[in-house]
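1st attempt posting a full record on here, be nice pls
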Amino acid sequence: MEEEQELLSRILADLEEARDSNSSSHTPSPPLSRSTLLDLQSILNADDAADLLDQFFSRLSSKSLSPSSLLPPLTSAMDSGPISISLLSSQAYLSLLLCPNSPVFTLFNPMWFLSLLRSLRRALKNPPPGVQGDDPPSSSGRAGGLKRKKARGGRNTRGKNDDEDEDGGGGESQVRNAKLFYSVLEKLGSVLDLIHLSRFPDSLKSLVQTVVEIPVLASETLGSSSGSSTGLENLCSRILNRVLKPEHGDQGETAAELLKSLTPLILSVKSHSRSFALGFVKNLVTGLARRIEGVNKACVNLPRYLVTKAPEKAEPRGLAVEAIIDIVKVMEVNDQIVFVEYVVKMSEGKANLRILAVDLMLNLLLLLKDPFGLSSDCEPEGSWGFKCFEALIQRCSDSSALIRARGLSNLAQLVGFLSSDDRNHAVLRRAMGFGEVNMEKGESRIDDLLRRRCMDEKSNVRRAALLLVSKLTAIFGGNLDGIVLRTMGMACSDPLVSIRKAAISALSQAFRTYSDEIVITEWLHCVPRLIADNETSIQEECENLFLELVLDRVSKAGSDPRLHNASSLSHSESHKIGVDRKMELLFPDGVLLILKTICDGEVTPWVKKICSSLGKKERLKDVIASSLQNIIRTSESNWLSHSMPIDKWTAPAGAWLLLSEVSAHLSDAVDWKFLHHHWRLLDKFGAANEFDPEEDLTHDEGNKNSNSVAWVGDRVFLLQTISNVSEKLPLEPAADLAYNLLKRIEDFNMHSTEVNAHVKALRTICKRNAQHPAEAETMVSKWVQEVLSEAVNILENYMDESLRTNNDNSLLTPPRSGIRKSKRAAAASRQLAETVNAVQTIGSLVLVYPSADMSDVIPLLYTIITSGNSDPKLSKLPGPVVPVKETAPSLYIQAWLTMGKICLADGKLVKNYIPLFVQELEKSDLAPLRNNLVVTMADFCVRYTALVDCYIPKITKCLRDPCELVRRQTFILLSRLLQRDYVKWRGVLFLRFLLALVDESEKIRQLADFLFSNILKVKAPLLAYNSFVEAVFVLNDCNAHTGSKNTRTEDSQFSIRGNDESSRSKRMHIYVSLLKQMAPEHLLATFAKLCSEILAAASDGMLKLDDITGQAVLQDAFQVLACKEIRIQPARGSTADDAGEEESSGGDGNGMSAKGRAITQAIRKSLIQNTIPIFIELKRLLESKNSPLIGSLMECLRVLLKDYKNEIDEILIADKQLQKELAYDMQRYEAAKAKCAAAYESAASGGPCGTGGAGFLSPKDKRVASAVADKAAEVTARSVLREVNSGVPTPPLSAISVPKLKMTADATVGKSGGSGLPSARSAEVLESLRRRQTFMSDDDS
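the predicted structure (as tokens):
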């Protein structure tokens, strides 16, 4: 007892001292010392604390101190003392409240309670050094369990030294402070059972906020790995649960305040704090909210509140969506449906809400149970999932590219998830509009959506659309839309690598799923060609897909055991099924269709390239060759089983072609007996299917026997296969085959496609079966000279006969009988066919044996190609008088082609003949000949680049050839030469290529788009910028930029001259295509060049506005300056579209981006300051001439005022007169335009005469229309300039007078009697623009 009394005495002494010092100095009460707080806590922790406290209060009364006098020094210690003193005072205060017989209402005060809460915050915000350690306080070490202090020998005085060493001293003090903090939290929770905070709403609010902040501050102070975080979060949860008791006020309001305070934690990226908040909310939703309506209402509204507070950046937004879904999942079903309806409505709100709704709808449909109500009896259309799904589809057509892309990708993910359950297929098809054909567009809603989104201007949208297509293949049901497939095929040529990969994946997925003709055809036309792509990964993907989807499928079909039992069907059953149907049953999965499509001329080159690449990498397997042989054998046996004549049989189309390609790398897998059998078969019955020579010369495919074409093609590919495996041939069969081939060559009666194959096969067999190279060379030379000699004899005989016929026709003799004439004509036709074949054979021989003697051939060919020439020197040469081009055009064409092959082998001869080839290319009226000459000149360019370089402009004229084939061939060949640097982008070449962008042929337009957007953008990035202004002049056939007055007829055919709508739209398409290839700095420079070289030239009189071409150039410049492609959008960090493009990118380049934006803004400002004076001067010039171009100028100026409002703002603020002028001119222009529109509408509505002309308006109608137009113009002008002025109001119309530009006011007065001629404007502006540095590069292509 003596010890307790001594403690009470010391505490009373300290309180008296605090009272005296407070009364004398009138300052806040000094805090209690550490020793006093420990003494007080010892009394409160004693076993007889109630009796001691009674004694303490009695002694307080005896000294004229009330119980509340203890609180000021306590709260002072909480607020101003060190952390340990603050926590000790908080512990003592709470212990006082919890002590039995304590005057709770006397001791509790809201202000003192706030001091307690502040001490808790201070303990975590300002921890002592070293408190961030990971040593958790022991569970038994709580402050409330501190042992009772023993009596001290002397009374400790309150001083500096007493308060300084409580926070120092290392780990022991840290553990002591942590124990104190836990003790205070536990006591705080117990105090809430005694004190009802319903009368103190501010205290309740502060308590909630403080307890919510404790886990956040603790994770920062103690570290996320601290073991004490869990216990701390449990303590905070218990306190918050006690706050929700009815004693502390309305539970619904308290819950709302509590959830509002938890919102920052829920939306934070810190895992521990976020987990604590979400765990508490979910427990609240599943517990108290189920029993109390007010709490349930607050919990139901929480997801909506989180939606309004969700951040806009991608990663935090994703965490917000995840948190919202976690909360919604534990809610009641009815509450979930209400929230879904809210999300559906939210999907039509602002951009930030729409993007959030798109993510929420995906997660709701993925994570909530039974979204379509399939387990109940209700219709799926009425379910919440169906509405949500429809809303998500609508967002796929959102105005924001980011939302469109996110909607499509989410829809693809959703379709992939839901399609795994067959029950959802019908619902998905109904929701996406399968089978619901739009009568106007002729396609379903989903097909229209996919078509538009696959051609979207934003790359991320196109990528997401292709991903959706690949996911939808499982539920299309074989009804793939042709337009969608073609769009996917076009995407395979997209400039972006990611888009091409996505398109390949989507198209290949459709190929795996369906074997329809439309799918197979589109895949084979689009994917194999990517073997020539610049991206190595795409080439590898192309090889892998061809191996999987074509070769493996063919191998599987050809090695099927059912093929061996194909002949087991009875004769009657075989006849019932039919030949073609039986083949389809034997080879399913579209194998026959695949082989047939491979024969397409646009597919074959890429298939050959892929097979060659796979063979070099040793990825081809023997089973491929074996399967192709089995397919051909099965086809033959199936044909014979139907008692069909063997001479009418042909192998499945494409089988021999594919075998000829793979046999080059799989020679061991090809059976010689198989080849020998089919060669004898084709050679024996080939004569019955040969072409009639006359039909072969007419080039009329419609008159040819399709079976004959197949036989010829099979022989060609069979010969190639034999050549590939010739090393494996036995000696005797190889000699027989060589003799047979030579005999057929010497007969000169083969089809044109067979000649090269026979010659190459014979050479290959000779080389591979010779003992040594010299022997092979001798053998080849011998038979080549023999064949040449016979071909020369045939050619000479034809020339003699032709000369004799011409001489006979020149004599006046009576006409012969009709029978004799027809026999002679038939003989002449056969002789011509033999001669053409002989000439073609000569060309083939030159290619396989370039050193052959052509001295006898060249004069004969020269005579043919120069027959009918007007040159008197050439007319003296022996030869036909009538041009061969007229009597035998096929021979004429073949002679040019053979001469080209001879020139390729003889470098000395080509120098003399190249001018002749160019001359014929320019004047020939035969499209096949022009096409062959273009190919020949391209070969000359590769072999003799320097000789052909000067003729490139003449070759480019074929880009405007009337024949589409010639134009396309020229474009492809020149493009390849340019890519391989045989031809340079200089002179008129680039400008002439521009016309291909608007060619009549869709195929040429696609090739041009790919060239400019994919190849040139990488190979010559500055080409579009450097040639843009010149292109404007050339396309309009205007030579003002060159200073020449003579019209250049040579370049006129490469212009799109005219001011009609069609011509303007074509030119604009070319301009836009070029602008899309430019970097931002080049766009700004192009803007400046257009102003300085076209607009300034027009205002100076250098560009004649009286000439229609000059007007067209100026109008095109206005349209380009006003188009959106030339504008650089300013960086707006809050816009959704900008975020969509950069959402997935990191923040490493923020500094460089900011620097780039600053430079861009400075250039824009300088640019527009120099541009506006040019526009003002040019406007006055056009007004003085009453030019129709004033409308284009005003439209362009209106766009500039809106798009460059930040830059123009400074000009208008500094020059009020200019602002008035712009407002006045803008109003006048808008009024005139509105009057025309009003007059047109009034006339269109039907006048008294019903003629619908503007001239029939009554004066009253005209006045009404004029008044309406004036009002509309006033509103338009005000709105434009109000945006520009950023809040500076436009002056009232009454204050606007006729404007005069200050800088030219003196020059415009009276110089020409008010005639309105242009003034002598300051030359400094134009001179400064001319001196402007351009963005040229030394390494410009």
